[in-house]
Amino acid sequence: MFVEIIDVIISGMINGSVYALMAVGLTLIYGVSKAFNFAYGSFYSMGGYLAWMIFSVAVINSYFIIFILSIPVLLVLGYLIEKVLVAPLRKRDDWEIKVMMITLGLALLLDNSYQVLFGARMKSLPSILEGSLEIGEFILAYQDIVIFILSIGGILLFRWFLNNTRTGMSVRAVAQNPAGAQIVGIPKEFVFSATFAISTVMVGTGGILLAQKYFVTPTGGWDILVKAWVITAFGGMGSIKGSLYAAFILGMLEAFVGWYFGMTWVLIALFAVLLTTLAIRPQGLMGKWG
Q1: How many angstroms separate the CA atoms of 186 and 222, rounded?
Q2: Which of 168, 182, 188, 200 is the least buried, fewest Cβ under 10 Å from its Cβ?
Q3: Are 205 and 67 in contact (CB under 8 A)?
Q4: Domain span at residue 9?
Q5: Per the UniProt record, which residue ranges are transmembrane (predicted)?
Q6: pLDDT digits (tens, 9 = 90+) for 72-92
């Protein structure tokens, strides 16, 4: 029993680290633009399928090369999608609602495109590192260790980017005061596009990492979108620190509920915790009143 509980805790920590990486990207978009991206889950699938194509078509077995090739593609695609579909809407009234509608349409378009291009069958990727670490009765797969390290590393890299680069500080400025940032010469339109592109990389990277543990399917991104949204709302809309705490809390909750009650109860439990939290603290764990 004790060994099973430890395994569940480890599983929750690993999933929570990847959820944190992806939820921070969604929080970043909302914090800067105050608009919700419904295509976020489809970008998760995009990362998984992109890695699968590199692995299967190009026959490249090195995950280092897969990341080197995938990240620039995700960055460029995210930037172009924002420029072509989202940026023109910001000149209109109630553009946040229009962005939600167009990204919903984009999600449906991408999901159906995945099904046409790759078929409805599930795709999988090999482990990033074979073998396992055995400590007494505990067995921890090297793959899970690498996933955890890469996820935490991605979050720390993102934090360094926000605090130590000109673009990162511009993102923070626009999130805090868009009008003031524009007055002092910060290119707000570029910041919006860069934010969208960076978030696409973060969720796409999460798709590559989780594709080793779970299958990639054309509509698999909706589950990730729901979880990322729950984490974002639970932590506080626009609060990156809140999203990090919420990701690990809900990752642990998911692991224990799935272990004890079954995976069909996971989303029910997540929404129950979210609704209870919002009833007590409407702004989320670390959100602030707007």
Answers
A1: 34
A2: 182
A3: yes
A4: 2-280
A5: 12-32, 52-80, 101-120, 140-162, 190-212, 224-250, 257-280
A6: 999 999 999 999 999 898 888
pTM of the model: 0.90
Structure tokens given for 90: 């910001």
Contact 197, 34 (CB under 8 A): no
3-state SS class at 132: strand
**Residue 23, domain CATH:** 1.10.3470
Separation of alpha carbons 190 and 282, rounded Å: 32
Residues of the chain falling short of pLDDT 50:
none
Chain segment 194-239, per-residue pLDDT in tens: 999 999 999 999 999 998 888 899 998 999 999 998 998 888 877 8
The answer to whether the CB of 42 falls within 8 A of the CB of 209 is no
| Domain contains 156 | yes
Residue 288 lies in a domain: no
In a domain, 22, yes or no: yes
DSSP 8-state class, residue 143: H
